[in-house]
Amino acid sequence: MNKRRVKMRKEIRLSGFGGQGIILAGVILGRAAALYDNKEAVQTQSYGPEARGGASKSEVVISDEPIDFPKVIKPDILVCLSQQAYDKYKDDIKEGGVVLVDEDLVSTDKMPEVDVTMYKIPFTRIASEEIKLPIVANIVMLGALTRLTNIVSKESMEKAILDSVPKGTEEKNLLAFSKGYEVAKEL
Length: 187
Prior knowledge:
By secondary structure, the protein is α/β, with parallel strands linked by helices. The protein has one domain: Pyruvate-ferredoxin oxidoreductase, PFOR, domain III (Pyruvate-ferredoxin Oxidoreductase, domain 3), CATH 3.40.920. The protein is built from six helices and six strands, in the order βαβββαββαααα. A six-stranded mixed β-sheet has the order 2-3-1-4-5-6, sandwiched between helices. β4, α2 and β5 form a beta-alpha-beta unit. It is an enzyme of class 1 (oxidoreductase). Keywords: Oxidoreductase.
């Protein structure tokens, strides 16, 4: 009997506003999948005309086969680090998807139209209070995302972070990743 292998295609949308490192987070996620987990990955991005404060979105498609369409249609995983992003994208998520929000920046009074698993984590507060560096909230988020979804391995993400962050910031970024990973263990 010939068994058909089930294809794995996961669509991830990371969203927030300019200056939060959304694009870098998408690049790191795609790099972890493609270079270190030996998966296929495509990363696309869009942002408003403002350098900081405007809407920002990074989408990553991860698959175990060649990716025939590089855009996210219905995300399996949605991350929102701003209220504007949550309000705009919450109803795009797939039934049974996973939503992560920064609980200090996003009110989830209005839930997505479909059943999802919602995680509310204070990414920015963890970065500010525990690492003393608010700019690494995106890396805290990647730690939680990795732990909660297993979309890529922890080791692959750590390698991709080291490849991607500015020289001299590696230790703080790995600490941020570790904090996010640990806080997700408690959920």
